[in-house]
Every structure is written in C-alpha cells, then in structure tokens.
Amino acid sequence: MIGAGSRAIGLARPLLARGLIAAATAAFATMWRYAGFAFTNSAFLTGLLDTAYTLAFAIASYWLTIRRAPLSGRTVIVASGLISAAVIMVMALLTPLHAYLWLLLPTVVVGVVLGVIYPAWYSQLRRGRDSNELYRQLGPYEAVRVVAILIGTAGIGLVAHVLGLEPATLMIAAVFAVGGSVALTFPRSDPDDIPAPQQTETPPRPADREIDHRVRLLFGLLAALQLMLAPIVAVTPVLAVEGIDGGVAHVGLLFDLYSAGGVLQFVTTRAAAHGIGVRVLVSAPLALMLGSATAASVLDDMVSAAFLMVSFGFGVASIGTLINAEIQSSVHESERDQHVATFALILSVAFAVGSGLWGLAADFLPVPTIAIITTVSTAVIAALLLVSWRRVSGRWSKSGDPGRCTREAGGIVSAATYRLKRTVFGWHGGRKLTTATFVG
After folding, report:
1. Which carries the bigger pLDDT value, residue 40 or residue 141?
2. For 53, 93, 99, 338, which has the most beta carbons within 10 A of its beta carbon?
C-alpha cells in the first residue's frame, strides 16, 4: 500500500496537483469521446474507450493496494504525471491518422497510471489528521477535484474548437506534466511511517461484521446504480454530434454540465454533518435524477438534456462521496488504501460495463427510449438501496453501545469512529462528532 506518513501536509499543494491532473484527465476524456465518435461513427466503440479506461484504472489501483506495496505517494504521483504526458504527446502526433487504435492504447495506459495514484491522493490527505478533521476536509477535497474537471472539460472544448485537436492534445500533455511536477514539493514519507502488515488477525467483533456487511451491501447497490447511470457517458457524444449537429465544443459543454452538478455534492456532505437522515440524503438526489430523466425522455430538447446532466452529476457525486466518507473514517490506516481501491474497482467496473452496453444500445435505439429504460431501472434499484440501507441501519439499535467496541488489530479506538458513522448517516440524533482518538 502507499504510505501515508505521520506528518501533516497542507491542502494547497495536494489540491493543486490533484486539480491539474483531474483537469487534464477530464480534457483527455472529452477529446477521446469526440474523436472516437468522429473517427468511427459508432457509439459502441466510443463507449468502449470509457470501458477500457475505467477497467485499466480500477484494476491497477486494486492490484497495487492488494499487494500492499510500500510505495511513496509522492513518487507515484510524479511518475504518473510524466508518463501520462509522454503518452498523450505521442497520441497528439498520431491524431492526423484518424486511427481508433491510437485512441485506445493511450486511453488504457493513462487509465493504468492514474489508477496507481488513486489511493495516493487520500493517503496524502490523511497525513497527520484524525477522523474528525478528515471528514471535514473530504468534502472540499472532492469538490475541488470536480471543479477542476469542470474547467478541464469546458476549456478543452473551446481550445480544440479554436486551435484544433492536435494543439489541444499537446496542451493536455503539458498540464499532466505540470501536475506531476507539483508533487515534487510534497514531503517525503519516512520509512517508519509506513504501517507494517499485521502478523496476526484478530477475530472480527460483532460491530466489525455489521460494518463490513453494510459496506458490501452499499457497494453492490452502488454498482447497480452505476450500471444504469452509464448512458450519460455513452449517449452524450451522440446527442452532441447528431442531435444538435455539434462538435467537440458541444460534447465538452454537456459533460461540463455534468461536472457542474457534481460540484453541488458539498450540499449533501454539509447536510450529513448536521445529522440529516440517510433516506433524505439519498432520496432527494435520486428523485431529482428520475424527474430529469423522465423530462428528457418526453421533451427531447437541449434544456431538458442540460437539466439531466446537472441532476445526474449531483446525484452520482453525492452518493459516492457519502460512501467514500464512510470508508475513509471507519477503518484503520493500514486498511484504508485497500478499501479505497475496492471502492474504485466496484464503481469503475460497473460504469465500464455500462458504458459499453449502453453504447451498443445507442447504435440501435433512440436516446429517449434508453432514457425511459434507465429511468425505470434506476427507480427499482433506488428502492432497494433505501430499503436495504434502512434495514442495516436499524441493527445499530440492537448492537449495544458501539462506543465500547475496540478494534485491537491496528490499535484503533473505534468509539469516535462509530459515532462519526452514526452522524454521517443520520442515526445519531443529530449529535456531532467531537473527538477522535487513535492509539499506537
């Protein structure tokens, strides 16, 4: 796993590095989606690019953390930025060939190197921070990333429209290189700061089993939701190029609206911190998503499409951030990278499979028909999510005092952490977390 270190690092440098790489990644995604559809005229092959990227990203992240390789987060971020820059620069030079293969290969390589650094962003955030501070900063940390995606998506559309594909692609490579170079300013991790693998395993306590069951359940339902939400990626290039007779700038605009909705996820995290129940936090964005999908399937115009993108961006980011906050705040440092990688794997594989399947469907079915199918399917999955979440949360009242449960393996006192989970998911009567104690 990637060592987090015990010395706190200010947020400015990680935010700058992550923002630059996130903006470059979003710009690169806009380029491959437009170029893929322009080169092949196939929504399936365009969606296949997203499938290849997300699978490469998730598998690389999961493989690294399962191996628990003691790599420095600083080192892998620098290396990934420079490797991505080199690969995209080669792709830019080969763009005039209009060859699908030279879109697919760089997409896979970039997916792999960015997957390797995914846990590193969170290990840098966790350095020297307790659970209380970690949760407070996770929302802004994710919001800044989404803002960077927003800027990258909008900016590359305009640049490519004015300068062309090749100069815009070279600019993306430069941003990757700068983002990786910023990580050179991060403090080095001390070897003693990297947690040693546990030699013995403590039998799971009842409260630990409750947590593991709840996380697995939410992961499964979230994967199903991602599978249904994948048409956002698969059909947007079709809408932009064929529906409104647009180009790369229009593709960027629609994805920009999706990112703009994602910025609003901070509303959900603030509500969670104030003790709002999970059924409200999940029901509100899902209702918004379902309403916008229904409107888009009936009206089939740009206004409804814009509202669809914003609402889906908000819903996906809100639910994902809630679950990510749960993982980051509930497990020991030695296990967090592995849980984060599992989260990325489940999320990415479902989205990757959905992108390919819905891309294939978009070659044969009109977009309004796809919107109706996904609306009904998402409603069913949302109902299962809320019912299951309620059943699992109800068990807490029968589990005794979770504050008395300690997780001896790894030396973490779980009283504060369990209170955090109750606060985050609205099971603690609105009381806020005030302490977080870690023992070595």
Report:
1. 40
2. 53
Q: Of the candidates 25, 20, 105, 36, which has an alpha carbon nearest to the alpha carbon of residue 248?
A: 36
Nearest 5°: the CA angle 288, 347, 238 is 60
User: Of 78-92, 181-195, 250-264, 417-431, where does the model show the most confidence?
Assistant: 78-92
Element (H, E) at 72: strand 71-72
Pair of tokens at residue 274: 């104030």
Cα 192 to chain center, whole Å?
30
> Domain limits of the chain?
2-187+206-424
- Amino acid residing at 129: R
Which among 33, 382, 36 has a CA at the least distance from the CA of 229?
382
* Helix H or strand E encompassing 412: strand 412-413
Beta bridge partners of 438: 412
In the chain, the N- to C-terminal Cα span, in Å, equals 19
- Cβ atoms 71, 193 nearer than 8 A: no
The amino acid that residue 354 corresponds to is G
CATH of domain 2-187+206-424: 1.20.1250.20
Q: How far apart are CA 318 and CA 324, in angstroms?
A: 10
Per the CB < 8 A criterion, the answer to whether 174 and 85 are in contact is yes
Q: State residue 399 phi and psi, 5-degree precision.
A: -95, 5
Tokens 């919001």 found at: 143
**Long-range contacts, stretch 379-382, CB < 8 angstroms, 24+ apart:** 379/290, 381/221, 381/224, 381/225, 381/228, 382/225, 382/282, 382/283, 382/286, 382/290
Residue 362, classified by CB atoms within 10 Å of its CB into exposed (0-12), middle (13-18) or buried (19+), is: buried
Mode of pairing for the β-strands spanning 2-3 and 71-72: parallel
> Taking the model in full, what pTM does it have?
0.57
Greater pLDDT, 208 or 322:
322
Pairwise pLDDT comparison (315 vs 194), residue with the higher score = 315
Question: Tokens at residue 124, please?
Answer: 């840098």
- 248 or 322, which is more confident? 322
129, 193, 226, 237 from 222: Cα distances, Å: 28, 33, 6, 25
pLDDT of residue 271: 79
Separation CA 156–CA 162 (nearest Å) = 10
Q: What is the mean pLDDT of residues 17-31?
A: 87
